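User: quick one, fold this
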Amino acid sequence: MRDERVTLAHGGGGKAMRDLIETVFTSAFEPASMEDQARLTDAAFTEVGARLAFTTDSFVVDPLEFPGGDIGKIAVCGTVNDLAVGGGRPLWLSAAFIIEEGCEIALLERVVRSMRAEADAAGVKIVTGDTKVVGRGHADKLFVTTSGVGVIPPGRDLRAERVRPGDIAIVNGVLGDHGTAILAARGDLALSTDIPSDCQGLGHLMEAVLEAVPDVRAARDATRGGLATALNEIAVAAAVKIELDERQLPLRPEVRGMCEILGLDPLYLANEGTLVLFVPEARAARALAAMRATDAGRGAVAVGRVLEAPAGRVTLRSAFGGERIVDMLVGEQLPRIC
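Assistant:
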C-alpha cells in the first residue's frame, strides 16, 4: 500500500480497504482466519465450575500518543485489567477501529504494533476486529473499541459485595501518573514533567496474588475517577466505610506539585496500571509480598482499612489526625484520558 493517509476509499469495502487491513492490521495481529467470526476453544472451559468473563470498552484518549503509551496500549491494558480484577484469566480480545479520513497510516501502524506487543506481554491474542472510516471532522483521528473474553477458574469469587470490616486496602503502585502524563502531553498549560503513564497490564500480578491469597475479597482498577471513585463504588456495594491513611498514599512529589498548582485532587486522577484490592487483615502481609514480587506490583502498599460504619462512605485520615470525606467525583477533572 502506497497511501500515506487514510481516505474514504479505505472504508469502502473494496481493494483499498483490503490493502489497509492486510498491511496494517492482519500483518500484526495474525488472526487464525479471515472469517467474520473468531472460533474459540480452550481447555480452561472444560473445568467444572469455570465461568466465562466478558468485558468491552471504548478508548478516545487525547493525545493518541503520550509518554509511556498510546491509545493502542491503553486499549489492550484496559480490557485485560477489567478481566483480571474480576479474577478472570484474559484469553482473547477483539479490536474495532473508527478512523478519520486523513489519519496517517504510519500512526495506525505504530498503534497496532503497540497493541500486539502489549497483547503478547499479557498472554492474550487479538482474534477478530473491524475497521470503519469516517469523513474529516467526524472523529478525532482514531477511536478504538476492544472487547475481552477470559475464564474465571472454579472457586474464585471476587466481588465488591464481599468486602468486610477489618479488611485491608492495598494498591500496587503510585497514583495519578496517567492523568498527570496526559495533562502534560497536551501542552495546554505550559507544564512539563518526565512522568510517564503507568499504563500496564495487571493480569500477571492478579494471578500471583490469587495464588498466594486465594481469599482476596475484591479488586478494582482505578481508571477514570481515580482511586477515590473506585473506593466509593466498593463502599456502596459492600455497605461499609473505607478509611484511607494519607501518610501511606503513594504519590510522586511531581504529581503532588502539579495538583497543588492546578487545584486538583490526586485521589481523582486517572490511572491505567493501578488497582486496589481488599484482603482480610491476616492475609495482608502475604498479599503485599506476592505483589511486590511482580514487575507491576513492586510499589505495593497498604493504604487503608475497612470499617463498619457509616456505610457507603470513604474518608481520608490526614497526617495531622483530622478526617475528611472523600466523595464520588462530581463532573470531570480531565476529559478524554482513556
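User: anything notable?
Assistant: DSSP finds eight helices and 13 strands in the chain.
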